[in-house]
């Protein structure tokens, strides 16, 4: 049994190989560049933890974890094109550095490489693994499309926003854990529980993320507070505020969304506070966390084996940065 | 044993299902739109023919053929973005009709669906099938990247151009046949022979394509002759002309490539003819066809079973439109 930190170290070691052929460099160097930008590698490590929860680490878990991380990076490269984002982890995005067409192709070939790793595992469970991987990949694309659709929509309800976040963010965390659980020989029921644990953890994480962007301590947060508000980004907070606001508050909020004034952030935050959006977000997060932990408790393995996942979950959602 | 036309009819029937979930329509309607634009479905039918050459049709050949056609359409959607192409088969491209971000995402999800079909086949050969599919997918991406690299290069040699066309066009035809052969229980040697047959056929096809664009009969060709010349597209003809031309002809040709005059096509064609590019292309095509047919003859099955492939090959490469 290992902690997140221990497995993270092990995974990063194994992931630091060259995943791509030497040439053409014009296609593969962009992928090498992007992967060396790093990242917390949370999803692949969740996969290994999902295995470790049930049994000693199955050697096939490593290629599956690699496939998950490559898939995640593929989505980042393509999302950056769609969002026209100049920076990722403080460095140039692939399309910014190498051009859009190459970024598109480099992403494509990164996804193909993920399937190469999946094709390396034992036939005993490869069908289940690939089926869950594909379902999740499709859902992540659906989440990204809904996110883009919402940008053009005036009103987005809480339930449809929740569904979008679930697809765009949560299901990959959930599936990473379940893929590991399959490799650890978990029963169908235990697989579902770990999946739901991951899904609810993902939702709590996103609420936290939205909360910190608005109400975080600027010294601890590390980036400018209010970025989502400035960008008129739909978040848990804004969507709830529009639903909870009085008619006057709603008018004021909608006016602010169409303005670009100097104290826009302060004014939006004042309405958020008046609508008690901060308290609501804190309790929504707690609700998702409680649900996540209930699923974790229901899993039929001794409590001690669950400790690393509990610690990680608390770390991810209690963080202030 | 079936002809190309018979298998084409069978495949199109089986392919006319809804490959995608009902919602979100904003993501999946673009894919439905693109697939109903049609196409000759040559690659998936080659896959079924590769099976039919060796044995009765394995039911698993149909999902593999579907995966090949979805993969091909995924590459077309993404290539159209990269080429900024407004039309495909006379209709709006996906990015033109639905926007670039959606086209990117729709292509991604189409590739994922291809892997769903591959995951449906028997474990007995799924590893070999997916390995060849992945290798080919990677090569097609490499070919597209090289093609883009060549656009920016002043001089491209015959060998590097041949390598690019091989990757971008030929290997998918070759692999389609080999995937069918694997499903038909062909030996390793017979698999390699059918692969090489397809590869050489693809090269002959591309030479023919380039030839018709320059020297085709406008009445039979169906589209304007000289399109490649107008677009300064690197083709077998141009690359050979630049290698075979005298110093004066080369200077004239390079000047024409940088001009946009009314009779550019006529002048370039005159240099092509002076350099005997037309004869050279005809003999290059014949060479590739001869090599293709030699590989086909070497396959250890009775001659009668090879007839449909021979007929198709002649049809593809003798066509004047």
Largest sheet strand order of chain A: 1-2
Oligomer status: homodimer
- What is the CA–CA distance across the termini of chain A? 28 Å
N-to-C order of helices and strands of chain A: HHHHEEHHHHHHHHHHHH
Radius of gyration of chain A: 20 Å
Instruction: Specify the CATH homologous superfamily of the largest domain in chain A.
Output: Farnesyl Diphosphate Synthase
Kindly state the number of beta strands of chain A.
Answer: 2
Shape of chain A: globular
Major pleated sheet of chain A: 2 strands, antiparallel
Helix segment tally of chain A? 16
**Helices and strands of chain A: which structural class?**
mainly alpha
% residues in beta strands of chain A: under 5%
What number of domains of chain A? 2
Poorly predicted segments of chain A:
none
Helix fraction of chain A, binned, reads over 70%
Organism (chains A, B): Flavisolibacter tropicus
Family (chains A, B): Belongs to the FPP/GGPP synthase family.
Pfam families (chains A, B): polyprenyl_synt
GO molecular function, one term (chains A, B): prenyltransferase activity
3D structure, described in words:
Two copies of one chain form a homodimer. By secondary structure, chain A is mainly α. The first copy, chain A, has two domains: 1-143, Orthogonal Bundle (Farnesyl Diphosphate Synthase); 187-321, Farnesyl Diphosphate Synthase (Orthogonal Bundle). In chain A, 75% of the residues lie in helices and 1% in strands. Chain A contains 16 helices and two strands. A two-stranded antiparallel sheet of chain A has the order 1-2. The model of chain A has no long low-confidence stretch (mean pLDDT 95). Chain A binds chain B through residues 21, 24, 26-27, 78, 81-82, 100-102, 104-105, 107-109, 111-113, 115-116, 119, 123, 126-127, 130-131, 134, 137-138, 141-142, 144-146, 148-149, and chain B through 21, 24, 26-27, 78, 81-82, 100-102, 104-105, 107-109, 111-113, 115-116, 119, 123, 126-127, 130-131, 134, 137-138, 141-142, 144-146, 148-149.
């Amino acid at each position: 049994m290992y902690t997140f930190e221990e497995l993270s170290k092990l995974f990063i070691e194994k992931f630091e190989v060259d995943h791509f052929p030497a040439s053409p460099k014009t296609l593969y160097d962009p992928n090498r560049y992007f992967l060396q930008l790093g990242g917390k590698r949370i999803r692949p490590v969740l996969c290994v933890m999902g295995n470790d929860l049930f049994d000693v680490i199955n050697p096939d878990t490593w290629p599956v974890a690699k496939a998950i991380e490559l898939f995640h990076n593929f989505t980042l490269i393509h999302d950056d094109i769609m969002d026209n984002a100049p920076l990722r982890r403080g460095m140039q995005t692939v399309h910014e550095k190498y051009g859009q067409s190459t970024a598109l192709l480099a992403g494509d070939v990164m996804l193909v490489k993920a399937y190469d790793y999946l094709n390396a595992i034992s036939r005993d469970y490869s069908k289940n693994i690939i089926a869950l991987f594909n379902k999740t990949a499709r859902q992540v694309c659906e989440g990204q499309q809904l996110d883009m659709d919402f940008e053009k929509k005036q009103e987005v309800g809480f339930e449809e926003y929740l569904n979008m976040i679930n697809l765009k963010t949560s299901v990959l965390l959930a599936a990473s854990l379940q893929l590991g659980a399959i490799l650890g020989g978990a029963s169908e029921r235990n697989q579902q529980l770990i999946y739901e644990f991951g899904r609810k953890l993902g939702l709590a994480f996103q609420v936290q993320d939205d909360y910190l962007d608005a109400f975080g301590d600027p010294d601890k947060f590390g980036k400018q507070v209010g970025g989502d508000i400035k960008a008129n980004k739909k978040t848990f907070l804004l969507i709830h505020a529009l639903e909870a606001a009085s008619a006057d508050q709603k008018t004021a909020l909608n006016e602010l969304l169409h303005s670009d004034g100097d104290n826009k952030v302060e004014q939006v935050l004042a309405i958020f506070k008046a609508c008690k959006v901060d308290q609501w977000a804190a309790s929504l997060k707690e609700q998702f966390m409680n649900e996540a932990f209930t699923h974790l408790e229901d899993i039929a393995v001794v409590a001690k084996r669950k400790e690393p996942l509990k610690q990680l979950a608390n770390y991810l959602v209690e963080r202030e940065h």
